[in-house]
């Protein structure tokens, strides 16, 4: 079966009892494939539809003063940030700058943020796709969130106790980190990430051929954020996920041809999912069976066809998402240009690596046909899977056990329901679904186009994140949420799994460099307001208590490099201060008991005001001071 045929073939070829796309449209919104589910053969009456919709809406409404049941962490796409939402209300709670510059918090401006981004950082953009939360024994532990930057080949770590980025790693030897997942058991030792694009080695302009290019699968130590090892693969790499034993990770490849042109990437009827044996890779590295590339000291092992470290499982066609079922039994690869998903039995992988199976496809236990453009699959913990169908603009709910029965020749329909979404869904994510604790309450579908769903706001449209109630037998759409460019994925965790600080502790490592410098200068950050001159470098130490800075004027000379340290002495939750130096591009946030610092050149003689730009008091406007810059 050819890829173009897969993409355009009619859903009328669905399994027995299924409905074609054309026949389905009239019933899809709530009833879905009603006859196939045993819920009745007729489309829901108008009254039943209204009652079901009202019931679902009542579940999702969070009244003023009430708290959401879940935290949702959304990737910010090419805004380079992470967004924090409450679910099911879908209220935006916070934005966490990661790879971007943010004038509100001073991220990318303050010295503390530059300690993370790199003081020589020239990348002012990012493309954040996949947010994932650290785990212990297969459950979210709420310690860290990790996110990729496809644009500049980076991976970031966010401390969830303060919701701030604390580490960013540039991954060497590769380009475009895309798919990212975490080791689930016994704990998150590794962050696994795929480099999408093949490049020549060395990439120094001496060779531009695709034939001699390759990419790599990467493992990053979750605590040190150093790259632990890399694995050379055939083809390219897309999405990835890990099992619940700590032994296997699987990744999809959509360009096994290593083609540059679009037609070339669709030439093969099947590409593959490559499975990595983590234990064997670690053993190879420990035994010294690796090489290094260029100036990088990261161990690199060869996982191309024929390696004992990997296995290549053929799957159709240009596969995209790769998702592990919460019971730990299956990897599911989503076909994209095939209307199918491929179910890989994880318990067969030991035999595959031991050479006990006839061929790689012997680990495939089902390949259900779902609809046009399957991209990502999520789970409810009750044996059902939910797959986005990009071309059909639908979510398909289907039963994994029944799909396996159908693959083995039984006449059973595995599709439970199809629901129209708006429009062209990419990622979807059910509550707690990447852990053992998947609870099957809520499903978020991140649709790429909103078209007519919201008030027009110019040629650039928002995307549409839709909330669906999956707690019952039927999926029920309850909310449309416009989002700015461009969330790719999200993750939902229970609110009790995240423990945030209300105020900083004075020993927080986030501003350790400021504490260290103050100690060298003989300054007590919590008490002193003074100016320290070191040649043409001037360090200004200021304490603040709303509504005043405890230094309202300081003098420097034209051309001085000035570093201002502000310590917020307020110990009351939510009394954040700011510091903005007018006409100097300087702005930062200082939360209760935090120290923040910023460095700039005082190149303009005269009077320059600074003020608090975070509202903190009824006399907020009076919280200001002056920098006097004397002519050189």
From TrEMBL:
NCBIfam families: nitrous_NosZ_RR, TAT_signal_seq. Keywords: Calcium, Copper, Metal-binding, Oxidoreductase, Periplasm, Signal. Its cofactor is Ca(2+); Cu cation. It catalyses: N2 + 2 Fe(III)-[cytochrome c] + H2O = nitrous oxide + 2 Fe(II)-[cytochrome c] + 2 H(+). Predicted to be exported by the Tat system. The position of the signal peptide cleavage has not been experimentally proven. Its EC number is 1.7.2.4. Binds 2 calcium ions per subunit. Pfam families: nos_propeller (PF18764), nos_propeller_2 (PF18793). It comes from the Bacteria. One of its GO terms (biological process) is denitrification pathway. Belongs to the NosZ family. In the C-terminal section; belongs to the cytochrome c oxidase subunit 2 family. Cu cation Z1 binds at residues 320, 376. This is Nitrous-oxide reductase. It comes from Marinobacter nitratireducens. InterPro entries: CcO_II-like_C, Copper_CuA, Cupredoxin, N2O_reductase_N, N2OR_C, NO_Rdtase, Nos_propeller, NOS_propeller_2. GO terms for molecular function: calcium ion binding; copper ion binding; cytochrome-c oxidase activity; nitrous-oxide reductase activity. Cu cation Z3 binds at residues 130, 427. Transmembrane segments: none annotated. Cu cation Z2 binds at residues 129, 178.
């Amino acid at each position: 079966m050819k890829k173009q045929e897969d993409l355009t073939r009619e859903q009328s070829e669905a399994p027995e009892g299924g409905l074609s796309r054309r026949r389905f449209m009239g019933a899809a919104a709530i009833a879905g494939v009603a006859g196939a589910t045993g819920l009745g053969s007729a489309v829901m009456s108008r009254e039943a539809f209204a009652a079901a919709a009202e019931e679902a809406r009542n579940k999702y409404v969070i009244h003023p003063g009430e708290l959401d049941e879940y935290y949702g962490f959304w990737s910010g796409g090419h805004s380079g940030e992470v967004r924090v939402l409450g679910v099911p209300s879908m209220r935006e709670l916070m934005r966490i700058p990661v790879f971007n510059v943010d004038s509100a918090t001073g991220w990318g401006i303050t010295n503390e943020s530059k300690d993370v981004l790199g003081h020589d950082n020239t990348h002012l953009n990012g493309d954040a796709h996949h947010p994932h939360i650290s785990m212990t024994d297969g459950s979210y532990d709420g310690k860290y969130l990790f996110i990729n930057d496809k644009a500049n080949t980076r991976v970031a770590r966010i401390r969830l106790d303060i919701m701030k980025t604390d580490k960013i790693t540039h991954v060497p030897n590769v380009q475009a980190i895309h798919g990212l997942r975490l080791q689930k058991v016994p704990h998150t030792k590794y962050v696994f990430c795929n480099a999408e694009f093949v490049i020549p080695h060395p990439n120094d302009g001496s060779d531009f051929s695709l034939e001699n290019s390759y990419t790599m699968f990467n493992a990053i130590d979750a605590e040190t954020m150093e790259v632990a090892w890399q694995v050379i693969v055939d083809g390219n790499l897309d999405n990835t996920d890990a099992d619940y034993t700590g032994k296997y990770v699987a990744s999809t490849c959509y360009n096994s041809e290593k083609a540059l042109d679009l037609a070339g990437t669709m030439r093969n009827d099947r590409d593959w999912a490559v499975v990595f044996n983590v234990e064997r890779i670690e053993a190879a590295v420990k035994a010294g069976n690796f090489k290094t590339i260029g100036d990088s000291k990261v161990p690199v092992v060869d996982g191309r066809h024929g390696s004992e470290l990997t296995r290549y499982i053929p799957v159709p066609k240009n596969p995209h998402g790769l998702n592990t079922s919460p019971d730990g039994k299956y990897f599911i690869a989503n076909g994209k240009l095939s209307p199918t998903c491929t179910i890989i039995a994880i318990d067969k992988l030991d035999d595959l690596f031991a050479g006990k199976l006839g061929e790689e496809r012997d680990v495939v236990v089902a390949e259900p046909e779902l609809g046009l453009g399957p991209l990502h699959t999520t789970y409810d913990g009750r044996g059902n899977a939910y797959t986005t169908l990009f071309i059909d603009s639908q979510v398909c709910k289907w039963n994994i056990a029944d799909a396996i029965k159908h693959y083995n020749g039984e006449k059973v329909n595995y599709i439970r329901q199809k629901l129209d979404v708006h429009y062209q869904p990419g990622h979807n994510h059910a509550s707690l679904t990447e852990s053992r604790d998947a609870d099957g309450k809520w499903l978020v579908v991140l649709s790429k186009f909103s078209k007519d769903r919201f008030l027009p706001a110019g040629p650039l449209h928002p995307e549409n994140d839709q909330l669906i109630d999956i707690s019952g037998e039927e999926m029920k759409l309850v909310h449309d949420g416009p989002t700015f460019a461009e969330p790719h994925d999200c993750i939902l965790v229970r609110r009790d799994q995240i423990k945030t600080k209300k105020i900083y502790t004075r020993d927080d490592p986030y501003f350790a460099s400021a504490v260290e410098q103050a100690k060298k200068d003989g300054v007590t950050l919590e008490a002193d307001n003074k100016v320290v001159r070191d040649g043409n470098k001037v360090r200004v130490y200021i304490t603040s208590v709303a509504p005043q800075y405890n230094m309202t004027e300081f003098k420097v000379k034209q051309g001085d490099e000035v570093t201002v340290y502000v310590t917020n002495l307020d110990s009351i939750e939510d009394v954040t201060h700011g510091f903005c130096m007018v006409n100097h591009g300087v702005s930062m946030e200082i939360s209760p008991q935090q120290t923040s610092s910023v460095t700039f050149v005082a190149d303009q003689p005269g009077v320059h005001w600074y003020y608090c730009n975070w509202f903190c008091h009824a006399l907020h406007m009076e919280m200001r001071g002056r920098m006097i810059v004397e002519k050189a």
